[in-house]
Amino acid sequence: MKIAAFELDGRQALGRVEGDEVVILREGNAGEALLSLIEGKESGDGNGKRVSLSAVKLLPPTVSRRSAVICVGKNYQAHAKEFFGSGFDSSAKEEVPSEAVIFAKAGSCLVGEGDDVRASLDPTATVDYEGELAIVIGKTANRVSKENAFDVIFGYTICNDVTSRELQKRHNQWLVGKSLDTFGPLGPWIVTADEIGDVGELELVTRINGEVRQQARVADLIFDIPTLIETLTATMTLQAGDIIATGTPAGVGIGFQPPKYLKPGDRMEVSISGIGTLTNPVV
Ligand code: MG
Predict the structure, then answer these.
(1) Are residues 87 and 44 in the same domain?
(2) Partners of 203 in beta bridges
(3) CA of 51 to the centre of ligand 1 (A)
(4) How many Å lie between the centroid of ligand 1 and the Cα of residue 49?
(5) Where are the alpha helices (DSSP H) in the chain?
(6) Could you tell me which of 73, 67, 55, 77 has the C-alpha nearest to residue 11?
(7) N or C: which end of the chain has fewer CB within 10 A?
(8) Considering the entire predicted model, what is its pTM?
């Protein structure tokens, strides 16, 4: 199932995407409806109403914008090297991390498919894109072993971990540089895990103004999905609806010499096979 949170005529709803239509599952608060669906309290059958996908305004498919997104840094070999080489990683002692680098991105910055990313909010004009596969957790998860990791995953979506490189560096901890308002495109929808098959086979491509900048397979993650779930749940409890952005591959703007930062008028597209494309204009 492809699960979309959206607005129609100014009212929120949750739906199931079928081709170019959306079958409405529940009208009203989309986050609450999504949590009910994830927890199995709501079927995916729908109420019989269908609307055209083009008629709805897609929202970030999240249970709550009050929850932070858990993010993984430097989780593809070539990206870890390009980021280290850029000199922007003020805390780094090694090119490729020996333990997963975990940080948070404030939920308040999340936006949906098609929404503007306001680069003008970054006073340092060092805005960069990071296309990433995101995991949506399906149940309360504590001390989950690698072997059982896929049991706690509801589905997958796409995150663009938009970053102010200068603020990321200036504040040492990454929260500020990662959480500017609108710097969290998420979507366009969640694809449930049963439809994905082998997640390692998915391919991610990021295009800026149509030019391919990032291209990688999920199988190239340094810390794979079972390892991330085992590592996180060893000491913290994940909840249904929590989102984990798994890291970005090589090809970010900071990796070029000189850096290719985003500017108003640019168009970002992050595509993942089996999920879709997350498109956001930069303003
Ligand atoms: Mg990232």
Answers:
(1) no
(2) 217
(3) 34
(4) 37
(5) 30-38, 77-86, 165-170, 175-178, 225-233
(6) 55
(7) C
(8) 0.97
228 and 89 in one domain? Answer: yes
- Within a domain: 240: yes
Asked if residue 125 and residue 258 are part of one domain, the reply reads: yes
Spans of the chain, pLDDT less than 70:
90-91
Q: Which tokens in the block code for residue 190? A: 């969640």
Ligand 1 center to residue 3 CA distance, Å? 23
Q: Is 261 exposed, middle or buried (0-12, 13-18, 19+ CB in 10 A)?
A: buried
45 C-alpha to ligand 1 centroid (Å): 35
Six token digits for residue 280:
């956001």
End position of a domain, from candidates 20, 40, 59: 59
Q: What CATH number has the domain bearing residue 184?
A: 3.90.850.10
pLDDT digits (tens, 9 = 90+) for 265-275: 999 999 999 99
252 CA from centroid of ligand 1 (Å) = 10
CA nearest to 130, candidates 2, 258, 216: 216
CA of 72 to the centre of ligand 1 (A): 6
CA atoms within 13 A on the CB side of 45: 5
Given a contact cutoff of 8 angstroms between Cβ atoms, the answer to whether 109 and 189 are in contact is: no
Beta-carbon neighbours within 5 Å of ion ligand 1:
130, 161, 248
